[in-house]
Amino acid sequence: MDITGKKLFLKAMREEGVDTIFGYPGGMVTDLFDELYKADDIHLVLPRHEQALIHEAEGYARSTGKVGVCIVTSGPGATNIVTGLADAHYDSIPLVVITGQVPLKLIGNDAFQEVDIVGMTRSITKYGVTVRNRDDLGKILKEAFYIARSGKPGPVVIDLPKDIQNMSGDSEYPKRLNIRGYKPNTSVHVGQLKKAFKLLNSAKQPLILAGGGVHISRAEEQLLQFAEATKVPVVTTIMGKGIMPVGHPLYVGNCGMHGRFAANKAVSECDVLFSIGTRFNDRITGDLEEFAPNAKIVHIDIATASISRNVVVDVPVVSDAKLALETMMDWVKPKNTSKWIAKIAQWEQENPLGMRRDKGISPQMIMEEINKAFRDGVVVTDVGQHQMWATQYLEFGTEKTFITSGGLGTMGFGFPAAIGAKIGNPDKDVVCISGDGGMQMNIQELATAVTEETGVTVCILNNYYLGMVRQMQQLFYGKRYVATCLRRRKSCPADCKGPNPGCPPYEPDFVKLAESYGAVGIRVTAPEEIAPALEQAKANKNVPTIIEFMIATDEIVLPMVKSGNPMSEMILK
């Protein structure tokens, strides 16, 4: 029996186990929405902007392990998701994005709201195609979900013309696929893995570097077992945060531009760097000529193209992280690394993480109280100083997960991603940590959070500035604070060097803004107010709560390595 394209679309969603779709309507997808109206088994979320929509789908996907599904209309609906596609691409997040398109006969005629979204996003998607034949629709949808979730996950765009949605055709949805030219790796070269393990076993100062690929493969438990069995200490990238429980004797901390002193020293001094699931981006390596200068480097990654692209390695291993770790567990023998671990511990004692406690609220105090109030659940951050403080001071283990925008560093990601995480995990506490700048990039999603009845706790660290750029201006640009003060007005002096008694008031009033949306707003100005505010927010199960923490303007993230410098050259004070 023949059915319309829109009915086959709905059938495909059910076959793929889709229970939630993030969608914004428009002329070229109204038929799909009309079909979804009849589907009581699929929850349709209506965000307030397409960029936020795709970040919500990311938060859903990152926190559940499922494929996030989006629907947007053609033209501006499609172009508004480009940032989210890039974000998902760099962090390997599985998304299937359906974009509406003008009818086939109008494609190429500069029709109203026509754009070549497949061409525009080719470099930031894993796969993209415009459906030009109704008979191909089922196969293309099946391929989209398979490609998005298999191998190295990523976003897929299916551009669906309006006439294809209404055209009748075969009702069959494929059960199996054979995509010529796409054969994701599902095995490991045992010979290469044995070389890698032999190198690790011969090391006197070995170090495991674990990245986001360990999370993606759900291999946290395997990595913990491997580290404990071999007695090899572990450092993580920002995307690898939470792989090892904070406080574990083998966990050193995050390395990189704002990594712990001991973690960066360990990378600089190790003789074998055993890396799993990381791309070695510049925020981790700094000056490539000085990165891990004394080490032989092993690189285990599922993507062949990622190996030796940034850092030339000694032993490449193309493999899923979980498979590689499970295979090596058959060979493990504990190493005597006590002297090496003691040396790392000494570095930690020399320069431990810590912020001042004598002048009102510090970010460390806020993170410590979040640790106490939320011992499990999901923590999502936006991008900026608050993100770095979260990676430095928040405690993660098996019960609490961490979501952030790593590769693209997208301001405006945090709040919508937290909403998506809460929708995907309604029984878990979800905390969003944001800055006053990033929060305003998608603040309209307060309406989405209220209408979806999501009790997300939003912690805004308000320092009146775009803090991360301000920090660079303070340290490297002679305190020329151009375009970073969020209180600045046209009438302010041109050469302002920072806050003074004549500064205008800050806009907006986050408490009043929250209340105007039907959310709860709280302002915290003293350390003793932090814990009660978090407890009040935690009790609000069906309504979002914004807590505005007033922190000092001049707080900076330390340690810090200037971009392009060796990771051994850390600014500590």
Radius of gyration: 25 Å
Helix content: 25-40%
Q: Sketch the major β-sheet.
A: 6 strands, parallel
For the terminal residues, how far apart are their CA atoms? 72 Å
Low-confidence stretches: none
In percent, how much strand structure appears in the residues?
A: 15-25%
The chain-level mean pLDDT equals: 95
What order do the strands of the largest sheet run in, or round the barrel if closed? 3-2-4-5-7-6
Q: What sort of overall outline do the alpha carbons produce when their principal axes are compared?
A: globular
* Strand segment tally: 20
Q: Provide a count of the helices.
A: 23
Structure commentary:
The model has no long low-confidence stretch (mean pLDDT 95). The chain is built from 23 helices and 20 strands. With 573 residues, the protein is an alpha/beta fold. Helix 1 packs across helix 2 (30-36) and helix 12 (261-269) crosses helix 15. It has a six-stranded parallel β-sheet with strand order 3-2-4-5-7-6, with helices on both faces. Strands 11-10-9-12-13-14 form a six-stranded parallel β-sheet, with helices on both faces. The chain has a six-stranded parallel β-sheet with strand order 16-15-17-18-20-19, sandwiched between helices.
